[in-house]
Amino acid sequence: MKKIISILVALGVVLGLTVMATPVMAAPVTNLNVTLTVNVACNVSCYNITFNCTNGISAGQWIRVEFPAGTDLTGLGAVTVNGGGTVVNPFGLTGLDVKHQIPAGIPAGAGVEVYICGVANPPAGPHVVTVWTETDTTPVTAAFTILAGASISPTSVTWCPCHNVSTNITWGASGNIVSINGFVPADWAMDATNTTLSINCSAITAYVGANTTCSQIPLQIGFDLGCNATLMITVTDNATIPLATGWNLISLPLIPITGDPETFEAPITDVLAPVLANVVSVWYYDGCTDQWGAYNNGPGPVEDFGLTTMGTGKAYWVCMNTTTTLNMCGFKLPCPPAGPPCYCYCHCWNMVGYHAVTSMNLSDYTANLSPAGSLFGCLTYNSSGWATVYPGTSMVPGLGYWMAFTADQACFAPPV
User: Fold this and answer.
1) Is 287 helix (H, G, I), strand (E, B) or coil?
2) pTM attached to this predicted model
3) Of 71, 90, 160, 229, whose CB is crowded by the most CB atoms within 10 A?
């Protein structure tokens, strides 16, 4: 029994010592406040962080300031504590160790001001900064809000040559646009309420340059507080036309990028530029005049025999000296203010183009033909030779067609 009592007494002493040795968490800092010189997401700011140091801090001890995710501290400049010099030890991209070096230290309860410049702000929205010290080891947070900078809507537009581009501006804290790809304000204009941006034709042409390759061109728009937004301009649509060695009956699915706004036609040399070196000749039959026109590209001198352009609504015989693919740029519809196309043909056989980038059956493509029922027959030519096209037969982008009409003037507008 004495042995058991001794063991219990000893255990009690140990437990008592254990309780006495349990560390007590130091009190947190108080009155934490964060202010920014610029509180816009796309800016670099100076943060002024003030608080009271509950337990005081000696010279050489650290103060830790941790920023929210999305903050970039790699460009830090000035960092001071109560106006004095400090040693800054960044850890990761969202935290700082700031070692205080003022010999007198900071007494308990005294105010502390940590000034940090060169902070690239986090994304727009509510955030917190976390602060604690070597003596006040419980982290304390202060809330602040980052505003969205100015932005554009929509962020992607389709541009027609010789026409302005207009887009809306959504304002955050930024007030004005100062540059677009480095161009001065003479190239663009804002409306009276600063909510719509219009970039003029000459400026867009300069931005795009000689680019006619069905692509997107990024415009970097700079706002006055250092914010930036990107406007993507789609230059043209894409289309491909397979070309075999020998004769090909083709048509253009798109209005050529350099096409005339009234006839939708462009020079043959522009349309066939990517494959022109392998083109032998191009032929077109005008069913209204009962005449052929041709473009001879070799052998012998390059010469046109009444045919200088190619456009939508027409089919062409193209003779090639090799098998290749024509990649073309253009538009499904003409640029404003031109209206959608309507194509007219004459009695008997005509070389008719298929103006579309997806397949469609013949009856749907000619659904609004006037006079109705005036289409007498339709043929195409492909790798297998001549083929009859019936009302339910699909028409293929890039292929050309011979169509016979019973009316002297047969017209229809392709579906859009």
Assistant:
1) coil
2) 0.57
3) 229
